[in-house]
Amino acid sequence: MKILILAYYNPWISGGGHRPICLCEEDIARGDEVVFLFESDAEIDQMKKFSLFNSHRLRLLRREKESGKLIAMNQQAEIFETEDDILEKWRPDYIKSHNPVQSFLGILKKAKDKGIFHIYDQMDFWDGFPVQPWGKDVEKEYISMADQCITISEWLAQKNRDITDKEFKVIPNAIKNAFADKLFMSYEEVQERSKRKKKQIIYSGAIWPEWFEMEIIEYLVEKFPEYEFLMLGPYLSCKDEDDGRNNVEIIRNLEHNFNIKFLGQVPHEELVSYLRQANLAIVPFVINEVTKACSPLKCFEYLGAFLPVISTNLPEIKNYPMIEFASSKAEFANKVEKMIEHKITENEYKMMCNFTEENTWKARSQEINKIIIDKNLARR
């Protein structure tokens, strides 16, 4: 099939592990052809580092926000000069949109007039973001024009019932099959890891004010000088979403402690070695509408590395194995102290194996593909 993907950022933003590229990789692996159309120029200089950039099945285009001009980002995309070239000459079998980008409303309306199937993939609670460079109050139009809507969490699906009668199929985030294969450890290796005297606690992902509860980290670092804290992920907002809040001073103050390291943004594939070396993983999120709505990618990867997890009370991960929840920084610390010494049982190991096998991007992509096929058959 031919798929037109619409997103605000380039596929490999923030290291290359986000939902749009994870699903896109599965589309291409299945033999589909993809046009990936995005708007922001953030981190576009990093794209050539990724092997898929040169795939003959992937055409990358950036649409300039002001002029609407299409810019070919790889050689394969040079056949397109206008949006009409995509819709009429190439003619996608369906469109998959990930962000409610205002400037893409025109191409979506044209596609609807041509009867091209459109699936809207709601990746976040966009109204909760302090800065929305893709456009405000646009999502309702995306939902209205979509032939099928999917979302990442039950919380968001429930929230959507307040604004639309359209059904949202819940398809959470997942883990890449190849990434899980690299993370895999035998039960004996997991047991051996737990015997190390120097314990390491890991966090991977964005360290942004609207998501991250810095007070918990400050408390843990002070309370447990014997543990090493490794923080992987950007702590400066992307230029498109910068709301003026600055984490740098907080990070600098924390780095005065000898037992914490902030490594900044790390390419997704490089996370493997860090996760395999850790003893415990954390999700110290603020509890608000943005985080209640989320499906934390990191949890799939933590569990894929057979790590016990301590998290604040995020509804979407309540039934995941080997996750302990805390409602305060003191409770968080108590759970850390308890679980960092926990010896994973053989039964717990099997539960994490099963969870990882059932929650891959390949499985998610197959689920979406089935929706497309079933809906298109029903329209005939």
Automatic annotation (TrEMBL):
What the entry lists under Pfam families is as follows: Glyco_trans_1_4, Glyco_transf_4
The domain of life is: Bacteria
Is Glycosyltransferase given among the entry's keywords? yes
Any one GO molecular function term: glycosyltransferase activity
Q: Which UniProt keywords apply?
A: Glycosyltransferase, Transferase
Q: Does the keyword Repeat apply?
A: no
- The Glycosyltransferase subfamily 4-like N-terminal domain is annotated at 29-175
- This one is known as Glycosyltransferase
Source organism of the structure: Clostridium scindens (strain JCM 10418 / VPI 12708)
